[in-house]
Amino acid sequence: MNALAKLVATHLAILILASSYLVPMMASRGVPPGEIDLPWLEEQTSAVLENNRVTEQRTWNRREELCVFHAPSLEGDLPSWLPGWLRHLWRNIMLPWQQIYPHQWFWDSCAHAIVLSSIDVGLAEKEIESLLYAQREDGFIPHMIWNKPRMHWVDRLLQLVYPSRHTSAYIQPPALAQAVEAIYGRSGDIEFVRRVLPQLKRYYLYLDKERDRNGDNLIEIIISYESGKDRSPEYDLVYGESNAQPVWRGPMLKLMLRHRLMGWDMNKITASNKFRVKDVLVNCIYAQNLFALGRLCQVVEDNWGEFFHRQGLKVEEAILSQMYDEESGLFYSLDARRGQNKQLEVNTISSLMPLMLDNIDQGKVERLIDEHLLNPQEYWLRYPLPVVPLESVKEEREDHIIWRGLQTWVYPNWYIAKGLRKQAQRFPEHFQEYNRIADELALRTYELVRRQGFCDLYHSQSGDGSACCPFSWSTLVLDMALDAARAPGASIGQ
Question: Can you tell me the distance from the alpha carbon of 186 to that of 444, in angstroms, rounded to the nearest whole number?
């Protein structure tokens, strides 16, 4: 059999497997076709967010303000039955390993605001304002703000590394403008947009100035923490070692200490070329948010709207021209050390993220979906989508190393579902197909939550939830379900 015949046969086999896998699964795993209990999901979502709500008086950034945000997880309180003489010991030894996420994280808060926009718009606005409280004069917004009453000794050691006693010195995927647009889309509160727009503009101008280091319109991350996918295998080559080893002796901590020795000076950090990556996921989110920011400017008749729209087009063009690999049909992050822009040819969930782009061409969309997303040997598992393809997983470890192995996370699923619906609108011949796949992704994500609760992550084959539970960003499944209910011909939630 020649090479062309083998390629055709392989693609036909994948399509047959994917089509046979798609519809039967809806009826075989406990969730009847088209049935998402929206009232139940809304009730549970509200309960989780209320459980993880934090209200604190902040006084450290030029003004005093009562801030309200939602931590990813506040589990890990001292057991009520614990004798007094053991409480101090428990707090200092056990609690740090249980209460991992009591602080405010940037892209988590963006997710929370999007979900809250369907439940309580006032809280959604407060979530955004609590992030903006921490903005520096140059526009930078940190990836993490300490919840000081919940800090334990591990946090306090890490606090010594950062230049600020209140925040980290890193960024996260810049999802802020989309979150504000989601709130405005539900509330129509134009005064809220006017109030936050100056700070939004400063933030995205900061990214353009400080993180587009060689003028090609792609922004760089300086440590894998900044991608939100902390220990993903796509970064191992840049680190020069596996990021699967324990954090306390792994490459991320070593790099943080180097950044501290450099005084957190971006010019020195960049010049050191220890870690410089143009990340696919980060830049796709960046492009989408530049478009969202442009639209928000138009809402209030701000003349910056056209500027940010043009910037979004430039970022998309750079992603499509520099990150795409024709042979595999995938997109890869770039190793930007010493200006090389070399593709990091590691297939991960990041490789599918250009499905969210506004101007990706039809051929690339079809290859991403047909050859990879729907491939049962890669991403279309029982509970899609794993963060790495099935065929790349050689062994499963019992201890969960985040963003490695057969882990399904709700946040990437949300982005992919949004992308599928966008491409359904752009390419009418795929309208029903792509919406159907997005519906199925919403259903299977809902099933995970219905069975296991709002967990940090889930096993893509067994569906078992793990790590923190309840975990607030997994409430994004509600937005997925609402999109499915609104889709043409939908029966979900009806």
Answer: 26
User: Are the beta carbons of 147 and 108 closer than 8 angstroms?
Assistant: no
If you average pLDDT over every residue of the chain, what do you get?
Answer: 89
Question: Which are the contacts of 196, defined by CB distance < 8 A and separation ≥ 6?
Answer: 128, 129, 132, 180
Indicate the pLDDT class of residue 466, thresholds 50, 70 and 90.
confident
Tens of pLDDT, residues 222-235? 999 999 999 999 99
Relative to beta strand 457-459, strand 465-466 is antiparallel
pTM of full prediction above 0.85: yes
Structure tokens at 225: 């923490």
Q: How far apart are CA 419 and CA 431, in angstroms?
A: 12
Residue 10 is predicted with a pLDDT of 40
State the Cα torsion 164-167-172-177 to the nearest 10°: -110
CA dist 329 and 366 (Å) reads 9
Whether 356 shows a pLDDT value over 60: the answer reads: yes
Q: What is the pLDDT of residues 176-215, one digit of tens each?
A: 999 999 999 999 999 999 999 999 999 999 999 999 999 9
- 145 backbone dihedrals φ, ψ, rounded to 5°: -120, 125
Output phi, psi for 140, to 5 deg.
Answer: -60, 135
Mean pLDDT on 477-492: 81
C-alpha dihedral (20, 362, 214, 178), degrees to nearest 10: -70
Q: Determine the Cα–Cα distance for residues 65 and 323; give it in Å rounded to an integer.
A: 42
CA quadruple 263, 266, 267, 273: dihedral, nearest 10 = 100
Which of the four pLDDT bands, split at 50, 70 and 90, describes residue 397?
Answer: low
The arithmetic mean of pLDDT across residues 95-124, rounded, is: 88
